[in-house]
What does this fold into?
Amino acid sequence: MSKWATLDEYLLEHETLIKSICQMVDTGDSEALSDMAYEIWLKTRGKVNRSPITHCFDCVYIVANCAGKKTSIGLLTSISATLLGRRVKAMDSNSPDDFRWFMSDWGKDAIVSVIDDENLYFDCMVWWRGDEEE
It folds into this structure.
């Protein structure tokens, strides 16, 4: 039995979580960050190999760093402990082949459609791309 009676309740819970994370990352511009992070979360939630909560933290990490808010995985882990009472590691891979949804074509397309800048996407993903060529 699901803890949500409707899809709207499920979506609202995760949108609220994203807003709370963004408020802790950047008190000055948290609304814009949370709107973008939630939009990416909505566009990719059915395809990712992540729990919905962990995926929220991934989306905040991506948007915050693309917006120039240097946000570390450690900071988000600390925020997760505060908000959830447990540690969540953003941008981690649970896949044996190290698949990262945000590096897939559909993940990139979803992110770029929200941040509206493909070059910014590549700049923000440089660490994750490793030795890949642009």
